[in-house]
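Q: Could you fold this chain for me?
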Amino acid sequence: MKALKMIMIFVLLVGSLAILKAPLLLVDIAATVIGMVIVWRCRVLGSELIAQRGATPAFTSFDARPTRRQRRLMARSLAWSLRRTEMASLLPLADARAERLVVAWAARAAEQA
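A: Sure. Below is the predicted structure, expressed as structure tokens.
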């Protein structure tokens, strides 16, 4: 009977600690998911910028003016890069975790393709 009471006290103690840590865990999960979206979008825009560079030499020549599509793509890429920088400066651990998850997910998708 004494062992059962000790187990009950231990379960209540662990449960109360879990209740205290649950909001922090939920915030961390949400930050990681948002970071994954930001990282994924930056990677997509980066690959689009590289693909655009091959289509026209506007990015390589100083005299050529970028097309409207290229300017918009650069503006979007810059905006998402700023979001990524904000994420990395405010929540560096969540940003690093998001980067690892996106890279692992991309590698797994490349293996299956």
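A (continued): The first helix runs from residue 2 to 55.
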